[in-house]
């Protein structure tokens, strides 16, 4: 099987680095395709039968598949930087993978120059509530249904190692908890396979170190913001004509739903105020659908009473919300305004999807 480079986003690896880390995992007994060779923009690996379609995974024996996935993740997390010290082209570990994640997400979001207040609020909360530093281990970086190859109801191999790296093991668990990977199976927080407590019990039984709830929550929120950044990048690829697949077009339309989740998880992580100074914002431009004038009045902003009730919000108001979110100083009514606006966008996009 030949895997070619499409485009790189965030912390995705070069194909050579991906080859070396996948080789390390394969040599340690992790169920992954055996890497055979690599070049500047390709990896050749051994072919395996099976399907990575979520419907195939969800149609298998979920109890057995949950146990196999938990074992696989525990095996991955046993690998440490010391075992890869001699591998060329593999990025070295950082002392604080959580702080490095926030910095990478901040840089990616600032580079876009778009006003996304829900994501700004999530990043502010993440920066204020950094979890304690733990020794880094190998993380897959995209461990979820869709990257699990299933054959005859069993986990054959784990695919797609381009986001592998040295991080807090809770990063993989938080990523699994992102709502999109559940495919509508809301109660099964472990990417639609099982309730998270059941998955973590199996993970611990296979030698994994179960993270506390606060660390899981932090890394879930980081995963939500990361997924938003990836969705925006994939939408850019479609708009630029680099990838004309329907999947890329639909991924870009997921953003309001991702932002709603970001608001919900941020509220659970830390409802307080940030302290200290915040870097000045980039020159944002206002994109997307804005709140109605009625919602703005409810949030405490002045609005002429004789205007139509659903007139779009002027750009300065939306940018004000974004600046306040970046500094983590939104009022409860402003958060409600963001939430109601995003929910309205989700409903409108859902209606369009149903119609088309």
Q: What's the CATH topology name of the domain at 2-237? A: Aminoglycoside 3'-phosphotransferase, Chain: A, domain 2
Helix content: 40-55%
- The strand count comes to 7
Largest sheet: 3 strands, antiparallel
CATH superfamily of the domain at 2-237: Aminoglycoside phosphotransferase (APH), C-terminal lobe
What distance lies between the first and last C-alpha atoms, to the nearest angstrom? 35 Å
Taking all residues together, what is the mean pLDDT? 86
The CATH C-level name of the domain at 2-237 is: Alpha Beta
Any idea what the shape is? globular
Which regions are unreliable across 5 or more consecutive residues at pLDDT < 50? 303-311
Number of helices: 13
| Strand-residue proportion | 5-15%
Radius of gyration: 21 Å
Structural class: mainly alpha
Order of helices and strands: EHEEHHHHEEEEHHHHHHHH
CATH architecture type of the domain at 2-237: Alpha-Beta Complex
Side-by-side strand order of the widest sheet: 1-3-2
Report a brief summary of the structure:
The protein is mainly alpha-helical and 356 residues long. The protein contains 13 helices and seven strands.
Characterize the structure shown.
The longest helix has 27 residues, at 213-239. This protein has a domain at 2-237: Aminoglycoside phosphotransferase (APH), C-terminal lobe (Aminoglycoside 3'-phosphotransferase, Chain: A, domain 2). It has helices at 15-27, 54-58, 62-77, 97-110, 117-128, 170-176, 196-205, 213-239, 246-252, 255-269, 293-298, 315-326, 332-355; strands at residues 2-4, 35-39, 42-45, 137-139, 148-151, 154-158, 165-167. The protein has 13 helices and seven strands. A hairpin with a 2-residue loop joins β5 and β6. 47% of the residues lie in helices and 8% in strands. α8 (213-239) packs antiparallel against α10 and α10 runs antiparallel to α13 (332-355). Mean pLDDT is 86; it is low at 303-311. It starts with a strand and ends with a helix. It is mainly alpha-helical and 356 residues long. The strands form three sheets. Strands 1-3-2 form a three-stranded antiparallel β-sheet, with helices on one face. The chain has a two-stranded antiparallel ribbon with strand order 4-7.
